[in-house]
Amino acid sequence: MAADMPLFYHGAISKKDCEELMGKKNKDGAYLIRDSETIAGALCLCVFKKPVVYTYRILKTLSGQYALVSSVGAEEIYYKSLDDLVQNYKRKRQGLVMHLRHAIKRKTALMIQAATQKRVAICFVVITHHGFAALSTFLETGLYLNKLDENISARLPHAVFVMLSAP
């Protein structure tokens, strides 16, 4: 998997290291993709617009497609590859703070880390006075979350939504 990743993918670098790389490049529209430090299997698209590094979450579906997580209500667009995703966001006015202009390419080979090879299960549980329903997805190396319908809380005003996660 790591060998197939584009050069703008930096793997498991920290947010701090990412910000240092962006600062050295010091060009609006500079970007790279790294592993998320908080969500296993997710990626971060980091975009520089002086003087801030903006971070956008990328999730990978079980079918291997990528989607940039955007605001609630926005339609998700799925891409076959990270290259396809980046090509789309190189165009102006696609929802990012700045369109992508300058790839920050890694200079070293990637190492596959054990953490990205773990299996993770996430289960959404909706509890109502009629009982409960579990909406779950089994996740393996990629991350795909079933989206709860935005109107579900209006239809179930007394429901409790719980997200359970286990490595």
UniProtKB/TrEMBL annotation:
Entry protein name: SH2 domain-containing protein
PANTHER family for this protein: INOSITOL POLYPHOSPHATE-RELATED PHOSPHATASE DOMAIN-CONTAINING PROTEIN, SH2 DOMAIN-CONTAINING PROTEIN
InterPro entries: SH2 (IPR000980), SH2_dom_sf (IPR036860)
All copies of domain SH2, residue ranges: 8-104
Superkingdom of the source species: Eukaryota
GO aspect biological process, one term: regulation of signal transduction
Keywords (A to Z) from UniProt: Adaptive immunity, Immunity, Innate immunity, SH2 domain
